[in-house]
Amino acid sequence: MTDQTASLPDAGPVSTRPRSRAALLKRLADVVCLPASRINAFERGMTADLLVEMLRDAVPEEREKVARRLATLGDMPGVLVRLLLRDEVLVARALLENSTNLSDADLINCLYHATVEHRRLIALRRGVSDVVADALVDMGEPVVIETLLRNELVRFSHQGLENIVAATRDNPNLIPLLLKRPELRPSHAYVMFWWSDADSRRTILQRFAVSREILQDAVGDVFALASAEGWQDPLSRKALQFIERRQRNRAAIAKSPYDSLEDAVASAQSGMTREVAEEISYLSGLKPMTGAKIFTDGGGEPLAILCKATGLPRAAVRALWRGLRRPETDSTGAISSGLERVMTVYDTIAVDRAQTVLRYWNWSLSSALTPALLKAIREGDESAVDEYSVPQRAAMLALSRDFGR
Length: 405
Hints:
Layout: H1 19-32, H2 41-56, H3 60-70, H4 78-85, H5 89-98, H6 104-112, H7 116-123, H8 130-138, H9 142-150, H10 158-167, H11 174-179, H12 186-192, H13 198-208, H14 213-218, H15 222-228, H16 234-243, H17 250-255, H18 261-268, H19 274-283, H20 288-295, H21 301-309, H22 314-323, H23 337-348, H24 351-367, H25 371-379, H26 390-403
């Protein structure tokens, strides 16, 4: 959006301005600030109108003085608020930094008609509401979003956080700040994982790779009920697949050309092909879309998650790494930094937690891919995000660029 800050004319150097103007501006501001016991609403409004007319032709220093005087006013006339908040930063700062009585409507009006610095000052305010925060995020300015994320008293809506998650793809410096926010949900973190750096990925796994034990205890008897019904209900079947302890797909073995998942991984070691990747995915209880995302990931950490979640040994990580033609050693003959990092992930994450991550990826990247979502992904139509469920939105964010290649 083009900045639309009001351009108010200069009235000449301070030395040439009559003292009466400064005195009159001060007195009018004093009258506007009188308590309700001494001035009624009509008198205050009349004085505010006169003050506005004078301020339009006043110099910035004069307007700043008036703004400072009015900053403590509990019920500032709207015409004055709009004029001063849209003024240049020197003037607006007095209100944005010192007035605690600006309404959300005042702030939103300002942020849509002022500069980036105005919006940054709004983002610095104590207790920024989710409505104002969402409007600031919608402007798409990294410096403002960064300021919001650093402000511990800002409230974000779920949609606002999703918009920031989407913004982190082009602004990775926002990721560490976003990961510190208590409002961040697994649905956000697991999607953001795909374009995070190694440090942020480690943080995501440490914070969001949670155990499903409490869910397993809560619905343990439901598995028997669903089985007795022949797993006919697709909604309960999908949820129970996420919760269950078993990761591998036993039914896939009967249809696979491989005797086991280990056999498929051993075959991949000599060179990963699309067919082998799909078989590993099926045998691991994953959709091919999820497997493709794991095998093409640049960092490699998802390989460790896959192996740990499916009960594969540590050597399987190296086998897949080799099959993907990634360097196993550096120039000195030592293990490459990338492989070492991935091995560390395998060693430090528990099986149940690795399954949580893997199943969430499978849920968000595969089960949500409806024809409408696929069309939106291919067209990069992230503006239609409200039409989709949480896993659908996750898939859109994670895959939209992949489909454009």
